Amino acid sequence: MYDLNKNNLELEIISNESGGFIAANRNIFNNINLSYNSKFILNQAIKGTPMIKIGDNGPKIMLVAGVHGNELAPQISALNLIEELSNLDLNGSVNGTVYIIPFASPRSTMDNSRYFDGIDLNRSSHLPHTITNMILKKAKKLEVSAIGDFHSSAPNSNPGKEGVFCTKVPCSKSYFIADYISKKVGSEKILYPSAGIPFKGALEDEANLIQIPAVTCEVLSAIGYSNEKICKRSYLQMKAFLEYFGIINDSSE
Ligand SMILES: [Zn+2]
After folding, report:
1. Ligand 1: distance of its center to the CA of 39 in Å?
2. Treating both helix axes as pointing N-terminal to C-terminal, what angle do 228-244 and 72-90 enclose, rounded to 10 degrees?
3. Residue 90 dihedral angles phi and psi, to the nearest 5°
4. Beta bridge partners of 149
5. Of the given ranges (34-38, 79-83, 92-96, 103-107), which has the lowest mean pLDDT?
6. Residue 155 preceded by cis peptide, ω within 30
7. What domains can be seen in the chain, in order of their start residue?
8. Are 171 and 213 in contact (CB under 8 A)?
9. What is the rounded CA–CA span in Å between residue 66 and residue 157?
10. How many angstroms separate the alpha carbon of residue 87 from the centre of ligand 1?
């Protein structure tokens, strides 16, 4: 763990194979708010997958973005969330321990690619040594209460709309988290009966299968593109996920 020397953030690199220069992808870099923290994280992402820990009490949860490197909005939103939470933390008002992985695969983000070495990381988290498998193992070791995996979906792809994927079996909490986010933000709830069918190897599914409640949140965006409005939708989904666990207060009023 490296201290960010500010606001009690801690950063750990959880895969050393995935490093990349985020700044080389201008489509994302031009939309990143450069701050002390975000610059530090971008520098660390050159080494591998960075995981930032904020807070040190209450429920533990994990948020992941960039499992698909060319889905840009959630990755920008994750950095914005780190910035906001780190400021809140100064006042001691974050009641929880939040692990945020803003760039699951920095190299894929640098390349503006869905894949890492030809592998779809959201279909391979059940396979040993993939980056998403390492994320899953880390979540298990940390005993997080839930994983939120944040993506974007292009028009005419699946789901091709803003939504929250969830399942009821074997982990019904996945459904309840999705229901909360859906009602709060207005994203459509997309329920599949059982984890692992039909999305074998999805981070959400494999987490649910080992009893870590998980959801996949999608915002609507062209691939390899983002703007402030799309980032805001992803950001609201992330905040609703935190609210479900009482880590931050309802911010609607
Ligand atoms: Zn995706």
Report:
1. 25
2. 50
3. -55, -35
4. 64, 216
5. 92-96
6. no
7. 2-244 (3.40.630.10)
8. yes
9. 18
10. 29
